[in-house]
Amino acid sequence: MGRPKWSIFVVDAAAADTRAKPVNLDHLLKLAGPDMAGVDSLIRDRMQSPVSVIPALAEHLIGGSAKRLRPLLTVAAARLAGAKDDGCRKLAAAVEFIHTATLLHDDVVDSSELRRGKVAAHLIWGAPSSVLVGDFLFARAFELMVETGSMSALEILARASRVIAEGEVLQLTRAHDLDLDEAVYLQIIKAKTAELFAAAAEAGGVCAGATSDQCRGLRQYGQDLGLAFQLVDDSLDYSGASETLGKNPGDDFREGKATLPLILAIIRTGEAERAFWLRTIDALEQTDADFERARQLVRETGALDSTLKAAAGYAASAKAALAVFPTGAWRTALEDLADFAVARLA
Q1: How far apart are CA 42 and CA 33, in angstroms?
Q2: What span, in angstroms and rounded, lies between the C-alpha atoms of 201 and 215?
Q3: What is the enclosing helix (H) or strand (E) of 22?
Q4: What percent of the chain has pLDDT over 90?
Q5: CB 175 within 8 A of CB 257
Q6: CA nearest 338: which of 201, 167, 175?
Q7: Where are the alpha helices (H) located in 111-175, listed in sequence order?
Q8: Deepest in the core among 7, 38, 42, 311, taking most CB within 10 A?
């Protein structure tokens, strides 16, 4: 399957402003091409089932538009650490199944209408089927992990699955909470998003026999990369288009999710807009015009810029974590991926 050419622009973290430089992931995609073709083949083989709704629903979400960033991270980390065999491919496929399963469950919990630019699966097949197919994909992921024979990799990804679930529950318990602060928000996204990035990279290193220092470096890289991705995604909810997001702009606002742009805007507007935030986020009583007003406040208070600068900082930290490896093609490619994390077409 052909893969997209991603060529975009990135915030320069060192400059701490919005000046941009070109970023291109063709180098990474070319390096990882044979591995990712193998991963895609594994994914399509293992999502098959005699129960027809399972492959149909899985294909709806996994096929075509999926960028496979997390499995790409697994194989790239393994190759950076010196892997010579193809064992990392099964771990990469397992990572994609874990990710897809969480998306299926998330969309049911959040009543999302779009995912990856398509109608959410639960609106086509129903919530029960979406949840159960998610469970099927989790089971497939653990089968693949066992087949690698690496107890360490199994432990890393099993822990990640638990942490992701904890993050989802924590976010659910703090939904519509105007008093959610930045520290708790970061705790949520570390668990929900960054943990799987961290585990994907660390498992790739473990699979390749990397040293303890290298595995720690890969885990730090993955965690900071995941944080950068999530911060930019949260920003795009207030600045992007549906083609960029794969979901409707404003979905987080309409669901009352307190992401960093919103948290900062609430703090910075203070009592002047307290009634507006109480009505729209706490009570979820919204009119058609409310999202545009929220977007304006997020921009005017500088909350959007602050969030993007935080993302750029995490991307820079991710690149620094790769210093435990010698310079080379794979390290450069992963540094490019960190730059890509803070780059979106908006």
Answers
A1: 14
A2: 8
A3: strand 20-24
A4: 73
A5: yes
A6: 201
A7: 121-125, 127-148, 151-173
A8: 311
Residue 35 CB neighbour total at 10 angstroms: 21
Whether 229 contacts 310, CB under 8 Å? no
**Cα–Cα distance measured from residue 2 to residue 213, given in angstroms and rounded to the nearest whole number:** 35
The residue assigned the tokens 């398509």 is 118
Among residues 190, 224, 206, 169, the alpha carbon closest in space to that of 334 is found at 224
As a whole number, mean pLDDT of residues 246-270 equals 88
Of 160, 13, 146, 153, residue with least CA distance to 101: 160
pLDDT tens for each residue of 289-312: 999 999 999 999 999 999 999 999
Q: Are 7 and 23 in contact (CB under 8 A)?
A: yes
Superfamily of structural domain 26-341: Farnesyl Diphosphate Synthase (1.10.600.10)
Alpha helices by DSSP H, 149-273: 151-173, 182-189, 195-207, 212-239, 242-245, 251-254, 260-269
- Distance from C-alpha of 222 to C-alpha of 317, rounded to nearest angstrom: 10
Q: Among all chains, which residue has been given the structure tokens 């992931």?
A: 25
Residues 53-80: b if buried by 16+ CB within 10 A, e if exposed = ebbbbbebbbbeebebbbbbbbbbbbbb
Q: What is the pTM of this model?
A: 0.89
Residue type, 325: F
How does pLDDT run across 176-185, given as a tens digit for each residue? 888 899 999 9
Quick one: which H or E segment has residue 9? strand 7-11
**φ, ψ dihedrals at 141, nearest 5°:** -60, -45
Cα separation, 73 vs 17, in Å, equals 28
